[in-house]
Specification:
Blueprint lengths: L2 H7 L7 E5 H13 L5 E6 L7 H4 L5 E4 L2 H9 L7 E3 L6 H8 L6 E4 L2 H14 L3 E6 L10 H9 L7 E9 L7 H22 L5 E5 L16 H9 L6 E6 L1 H4 L3 E13 L2 E6 L20 E4 L7 E8 L8 E10 L4 E5 L5 H4 L11 E6 L3 E6 L16
Parallel strand pairs: 1-16, 2-3, 2-9, 3-4, 4-5, 5-6, 6-7, 7-8, 8-9, 11-13
Antiparallel strand pairs: 1-10, 10-11, 10-15, 12-15, 13-14, 16-17
Helix pairs in contact: 5-6
């Protein structure tokens, strides 16, 4: 994707905006799949970027869905319920009832006794057998500890409509030690085998979030690569299906954030460039007050004299925290565009987007075949941050 050509060729492209390179995304996902063993399935954690759900449908085996809103996004993209793993720490009776009433059923995760109660009651009420995955905690508020899972399986005959499908484990992101990931997988595998033996149940699925990450900054430690993870996984020798829950590693590299230089100034011998975007749109894992420099590119579109200097790139929010990058050596002019790379994951939803009632950015996808397609134009959000207008 030629960013300079993109910015000059498409008049409908606005700033600030996201552009997701679909050609890159498709090639990247296919490469990931080619490195995995035959019994490994790819589950896209759609929280990473919900705009890409429909595009990824042909390429992934399932979607991790963690909220009613994410479920509705899947419905709008015509995702089959059979491709959904309905996860999330909060499930309530009303939301689950609407889904159980449907013809096709997702796989449900159980993260608490309350979840178990809801799924058991509704499956019995509608006389529908549903597949469930028990989530094992990694030492936080998510999932359940082993003693609680034992308590559930000790009484498994009391839940005639629940089919015990597997065990889920996720322990964090941006992992940089393969031996840690391998130890977690081996431990989970042995745990499933122990449960199979003790409770005489199938548990054919090992769902695992490997936490493969992205090297956003030069100073970052290299994360575990898909290639070395795939080689390690080949030797796992698990009798069943390994479902790999991935988000960041799938979509981060396909995304670019474009923001325009709207002001240039010199304060106390320091050069500042004010951009029309900011930290409410760009969220790099591990960034703080612009101290680290991610992969960025200047697109020279300016109409006035450029200035070569060491620039502090700051956003449009009225807070001293809105610093995207400090000490960036480049030439800059008014109306230049700064392209922030590797923002395909989380930036689009993690930023403090409602702060100062700044507009939401435009969202686009690009491919060689279809060119630029706008999925969402710039959205005014002041109505979300105020009471309804009083009628006269």
């Amino acid at each position: 994707m030629n960013l300079n050509k993109l910015c000059t060729s498409y008049k409908e492209l606005k700033t600030p905006s996201y552009v997701f390179d679909i050609d890159h995304l498709e090639n990247h996902v296919n490469t990931i799949k080619s490195l995995l063993p035959h019994n490994a399935k790819l589950c896209y954690a759609m929280k990473a970027n919900p705009f890409l759900v429909g595009i990824l449908d042909p390429y992934v085996d399932s979607f991790e869905v963690c909220s009613p809103g994410e479920f509705r996004i899947c419905q709008r993209n015509h995702i089959s319920n059979q491709k959904i793993i309905l996860s999330g720490v909060y499930k309530n009776d009303e939301d689950i009832r609407k889904i159980i009433e449907m013809d096709e059923q997702p796989i449900y995760t159980i993260e608490s006794m309350k979840h178990l109660e809801i799924l058991n009651d509704l499956s019995k009420a509608y006389q529908k057998t549903i597949s469930v995955i028990l989530r094992l905690t990694s030492g936080n508020q998510f999932g359940m500890d082993a003693s609680m899972i034992d308590e559930i399986l000790d009484r498994k005959d009391e839940y005639p409509y629940l089919k015990w499908y597997g065990i889920q484990l996720y322990s964090g992101t941006q992992k940089h030690k393969l031996d840690k990931v391998q130890k977690e997988l081996e431990t989970q595998k042995k745990y499933i085998e122990d449960l199979r033996d003790r409770y005489k149940i199938a548990l054919p699925c090992l769902e695992f979030g490997p936490g493969l990450g992205v090297q956003y900054f030069e100073s970052d430690k290299p994360t575990v690569s898909v290639s070395e993870f795939g080689s390690m996984l080949q030797n796992l020798d698990f009798d069943g299906t390994v479902v790999l829950e991935m988000g960041r590693i799938i979509v981060a590299s396909c995304g670019t954030y474009l923001t325009k230089v709207v002001d240039l100034k010199l304060n106390d011998h320091k050069h500042y460039a004010i951009l029309d975007g900011g930290i409410h749109h760009v969220s790099y894992y591990g960034q703080f007050l612009g101290m680290k420099c991610p992969n960025i590119e200047r697109i020279a579109l300016g109409e006035s004299m450029e200035t070569q200097a060491t620039w502090n790139l700051c956003g449009s929010l009225c807070t001293v925290a809105d610093v995207l990058v400090k000490d960036f050596e480049t030439a800059l002019a008014y109306n230049d565009v700064i392209a922030f790379k590797n923002v395909g994951a989380y930036s689009i939803t993690e930023g403090i987007s409602l702060f100062l009632s700044r507009d939401l950015p435009q969202v686009n996808v690009f491919s060689k075949d279809q060119g630029l397609v706008t999925l969402r134009d710039i959205v005014h959000i002041d109505t979300l941050n105020s009471a309804k207008e009083k009628s006269e």
